[in-house]
Amino acid sequence: MTNCTSTIGRPYEIGPVERAGSTIGRVIDRVVAVSARGATGLVIMLLDWQREVRERAHLASLPNEILKDVGLTRADVEAELSKPLWLR
User: Fold this and answer.
1) How many domains does one find in the chain?
2) C-alpha–C-alpha distance, residues 8 and 49, integer Å
3) Which DSSP symbol is given to 3?
4) What are the counts of helices (DSSP H) followed by strands (DSSP E) for the chain?
5) 19 within a domain of the structure (yes/no)
6) How many Å apart are CA 84 and CA 57, to the nearest integer?
7) What is the pLDDT along the chain (88 residues), one digit of tens a residue?
8) Checking CA distances to 42, which of 9, 49, 73, 80 falls within 20 to 30 Å?
C-alpha cells in the first residue's frame, strides 16, 4: 500500500506536473493571443486592400470633366492605378 501521509498536510500544493501544465497553458494562451492579433491585423489589411480596389475602380470610371473639377488629370489617375496596393 502507498504511503499517502505526505500529501495530507498540503492539500492545496501543486506538484511539478501541475506547475508545468500551468506554464504550458500560459504559453499557449499567449501564442493564441498573438496569433489572434496577427490574424486580426491580416484581416484588416485585406479589407483595406479591398476598399482600395473599389476606390481605384471608381476613380478609373470617373469622366475627365469630374477629374478636372477635383484637380486631377487622366494621367494622374493612370499613375495611381499603376501603383501596387502594398506600396501605398
Assistant:
1) 1
2) 62
3) -
4) 4, 0
5) yes
6) 14
7) 455 555 455 555 555 545 555 677 676 767 777 777 788 888 888 899 999 999 999 999 999 999 999 999 999 999 999 998 777 6
8) 80
